[in-house]
Amino acid sequence: MARNQHHVTIKGRRDGLVFVLDDRCPFSDLLGELEFKLEKSHNKLLTGPLMHVHVQLGKRQITEAEREALHNMINRRNLVVQKIESDVAEPDPHSTHKVLTGIVRSGQVLRHVGNLIFIGDVNPGGTIQASGDIYVLGALRGVAHAGDAGRRESVIAASYMKPTQLRIADVISRPPEEWGTSDTAMMFAYLEGERMEVEKIVHLPRHRPNAVEIYKGE
Amino acid sequence: MRPLGEAIVITSGKGGVGKTTSSANIGTALALLGKKVCMVDTDIGLRNLDVVMGLENRIIYDLVDVVEERCRLEQALVKDKRFDELYLLPAAQTKDKHAVEPEDVKKIVDMLKKRYDYVIIDCPAGIEQGFRNAVAGADQAIVVTTPEYAAVRDADRIIGLLAKEGIHTPKLVINRTRINMMKSGDMLDIDEICQVLAIDLLGIVPDDEYVIKAANAGEPTVMNPSSKAAIAYRNIARRILGDSVPLMAMEEKGGILSKVKKLFGIG
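Above: the input entities. Below: the structure tokens describing the complete assembly.
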């Protein structure tokens, strides 16, 4: 443990302990330092009555796996993690996916800020619109507009891709006849420069590696 | 006290797909099956249910007269020539749809439901005031479409609007189907329509020249059992009553029929 030990600050409060974790270092450094402090320098904390721990992450956003790692690290003996929180008031809406089901019928506009997974059909005359990605688990027969606030890396995917029109950011495309007619594969649309391309969904990670977390196999 | 009747609005969004024809025939077919039926024409300013029923010359008062209290509801009801338990509440021809409010229509429909088994409401084309008037008192809806993209598009729009008005399970009638055109791919097929609209199919009415003849003669098509459309409407009426009637074979072998059966889960 030769690295700088100033990423984790431990404070006492009436209702327990507050762990303030620096938000500008790699997450692994935090775990290392936490381990060092709990095992070595502050090991007194591990003896004594039950203590609630409130973890403050600053502006850092963590994944579920990292959250679990924190939990496992701190939850030992008498320490109990009560809360792990970031003080970012508004998390990036494009880091999560909203799931909705139903039918978007002619004349209806389903609008969402963030990424959208829609389970159901979008009928001709209906519009589905999101500031992020759009995944339609069903037939897309109407209009889909992804990245409607200008996010050009957005994609539109559909189990049955037969849209009236596709829009990504400010690029509008009228799909050619051959799309989604013969193949049963789920397709997705993305921008390649100014041009809209449509590919089988398996190629999503190749073109948009950051769209969702990639499964890399066991 | 008798149980409350059911109010069914016949609607389509698009004009000219056969709302009024369907209203007249479904209403008459229900009367034919022994039900007490009142038809309400809500197409104010463009009434024609009375013409199709051949009752135009018997009209004294109309819906707007009832709303504006120039007469009692009973006075405005026109009894059918053929059935004792079939009545029509005609629309006004001289006013427009803004002459009444949805609450007015609802009040009238609620009163009619106390006296009739079925209140069949003929809705005007469009999605504005006239539509809201027609839907206000309805418990259930029948959406009429034809096998054309424009009609299906509008039907879809209407289904969405019906849900907003609280009618979540409308039934579908596909009017003016031509089996040979569907087979050749020149007309949308039943499967395709049902897939897009995703509501229960109540019936398929074949295109039949007799319908035009009958409408001009002021005689509902259902009165003539040799017409294919008449049989289709009679079957629709029976399905409304809850009978399970298989969809009419529109061609000799399997094909569409078996597909439709599959949709119903009876194939």
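Note for the figure: Chain A touches chain B through twelve residues (CB under 8 Å).
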